[in-house]
Structure formats: C-alpha cells, structure tokens
Amino acid sequence: MLQPVRGTMTPNEMTFGRAIAMARKARGLSQKDLAAMILKEDGTGPISPQYLNDIEHDRRSPTSDHLILQFAHVLDKDPGYLFVLAGKIPDDMRRTLASEKEISKSFANFRRDLNKAKGKTEEWS
C-alpha cells in the first residue's frame, strides 16, 4: 500500500482526512452521525467517532478498501479521488497490474494526465 508522506504537507494541501471532514460538514453531519453510517468490514457495527476523528485529523488512514468505498458512498465523493488521497491503490486494481512495466506505464500516464489538467508540462514535480 502506498503511504502518504507525512510532515511535508502545506496547510492548504488536500488530504484524505480533510476531504472527509469538509464533505461531512457540507452535509451538516456531526462526527458521531457520520461514524454511525460507516460500517466495519466485519459487520460488527459502525466505526467509532474517535476513529473518524483520527482519520479527519490525519492521525490514521482507513485500513481497507471497504471503508474508503463506504466514505465515498455516504459522502457522495468519487471513490478514485478518495483512494488517491488515502495513498492506496484499490485491491482489485493492484491484482490486475501484472508487471513492473505495466505499473510504471500506468503511473506515468496518470501523472501526465494530471499535469496536463493542471496546465503543467514537467513530468515529475
């Protein structure tokens, strides 16, 4: 799993936690309300408000694709966007990338398209 780089973020840089907090607040939900809507993968119940608080303050990251997909569904966010912010490649995609060459090519295409959308020309920034 890709890990987000800690300690190098600017105050305005979007993180998974910030995206979740902003979307939650935009919907007028408390942390307790949102936590009750996000069910653990094992079905034993919802996540705790403290776990959600830790996520929103970037002290913890979601541990599974299941949780990221639930946040996306409940908060009406694009799952791909949340996976990128969480620093994670979805399990189903990771299994389909067979070689180092395929992964490198896919990542290069992703960076090229993202830079093009932002009006940048450099490959690595």
Give your account of this protein's structure:
This protein folds into two domains: 16-88, lambda repressor-like DNA-binding domains (434 Repressor (Amino-terminal Domain)); 90-125. Helices cover 54% and strands 0% of the residues. Helix 2 packs across helix 3 (49-56). The chain has helices spanning 16-26, 31-37, 49-56, 65-75, 79-85, 91-96, 100-117. It has 125 residues and is an all-alpha fold. It is globular.
Summary keywords:
125 residues; mainly alpha; 434 Repressor (Amino-terminal Domain); 2 domains; globular; disordered N terminus
Short recap of the structure:
Helix 2 packs across helix 3 (49-56).
Oligomer: single chain
> How many beta-strand elements?
0
From the N-terminal CA to the C-terminal CA, the straight-line distance is 22 Å
Output the CATH homologous superfamily of the largest domain: lambda repressor-like DNA-binding domains
Helix content: 40-55%
Unreliable sequence segments:
1-8
> Which fold name fills CATH's third level, the topology of the largest domain?
434 Repressor (Amino-terminal Domain)
Rg over C-alpha atoms, rounded to the nearest angstrom: 16 Å
CATH class of the largest domain: Mainly Alpha
Q: If helices are DSSP runs of H or I spanning 4 or more residues, what is the number of helices?
A: 7
**Structural classification:** mainly alpha
Gross geometry: globular
CATH architecture of the largest domain: Orthogonal Bundle
Number of domains: 2
The percentage of residues in β strands lies in under 5%
Main sheet attributes: strand count, strand direction, barrel closure:
none
Q: Could you state the order of secondary-structure elements as H and E? A: HHHHHHH
Mean pLDDT: 87
